[in-house]
What we know:
- The complex is a heterodimer.
- Chain A is an all-alpha fold.
- In chain A, 63% of the residues lie in helices and 0% in strands.
- Chain A is globular, with a radius of gyration of 19 Å.
- In chain B, the strands form 2 sheets. Chain B has a 4-stranded parallel sheet with strand order 2-1-3-4.
- Chains A and B meet through α3, α5, α6, α7 and α8 of A and α1, α2, α3, α4 and α12 of B.
Amino acid sequence: MADEIQNTRLDNLKETARPCFQCGICTSSCPVFRVAPELNPRVSVDSIITKGEVPREGNEWLCAYCLMCDQRCPMGVSLAEILMEIKNIAALEGKAPPDVIDSAESLMEDGCLSPVSSRSEKKRSELGLPDLPKANPKDVQKLFKATGALEVLEINKAAQEEDKE
Amino acid sequence: MKYAFFPGCTMAYRLQFAEKSIRMITPKFDIDLVDLPFTCCPEPNAVRAMSDDTWVTFAARNIALAEAEGLDILTACAGCHESLSLAKHELDENKERRNKVNEILKGLGLEYKGSSKIIHVHQLLFDEIGVETLTSLVTRPIPIKVVTHSGCHLLRPERILHVDDAEVPVKLDLLCEALGMEPLEYMDKTMCCGAGVRKTNSVTSYAVLREKMTSMQMVEPDAIVVFCPTCFITFESGQKVTNRIFGTDFKFPVFYYTELLAVAMGLPETDLLLNEHRVKLDLPESEEKGEQAEVDLGDSVASSP
Lengths: 165, 305
């Protein structure tokens, strides 16, 4: 079942990447490539079109999602979306980096990624800002579970434990 | 006019004074802001990278809350704006996905309908209120040289967001000009601040910031003006880290645009905002001190609760 889903995802990726003729404007427009050339959107896509494989090195996690590649692709290929999907596939295999797992956990616990602390709440009242209504934590967890995030989180935490051993 | 206000986690809990500046200026344009129990937008990189379905469903819940109140959403963060707009686009275009999301939202007593618009403060000021109106309200002009950074997530994907030209953005410059500032052109104007990769690989992130700020430094601005709390924090706090890692010497004051608008309109208590800055810049006092902007747009449609 899991394999089947991953295969469908790969097929969709191939279809999305098909118009790419490897001109490389994505890579030359990438601000991260400029300082960390291991992130190379053109090479990530090349793996999909020529080898029919999702790249496994994990470099896509360096994408800052600025969408400059997406903006400039002459074939209208949404490179950033392809990198995003590669990351989704990797996450299902337990390969999400620790900070992504942390973000997912904060979302599940607080419904919010920036930690709400007594200090941050105090600053709000000092400035005369209203208390913001909070989402019902049960609703947040319900969504988290129903959309499969809990499962992905568990896969990744198990993988983290395995790495430690 | 009344909006469901979406300050986003970063602004609400880390850049409260920027949120304050928005809440200071909006009543002057007869705009009421309504607070709803939103979650994180969710943040468009980390959460979505883990599960695209989770991302789209959380965003749908947020939009559905505003729809239930019959309100459009006013965003203040580029990241939130992009996340909600992209999710809306996906749900409006992809019926199958919308049905799947609505199956889940039904359990929360909500439904995504696609009836609420999502606009950022940038669009409210430039497209709805307009530069001419803003110019007419200035009592305390701000004669400084600035570089502007609209933020990747306000500009791209341009085909969906339509906020400004993604390669040659000019609207934030014009908004600055309206307040008496001189916007400067610089080489890497549309380049990312690096925030998106900070948690995954901080050195890479600060190297991107170094490139960006080197380009800004070349034209010798007095300050940086942004429209995103995440970019704000990246520039203001990140420049110190960048200096430590790479031996650079950045020390730029950074402003969220509506702070400067509040100052230029001569609103009271703007010192409250400016005192919160880590790198301070003394802004010139008004020539006619004590005069406060009187704004009457004539056709108020909203009444205060």
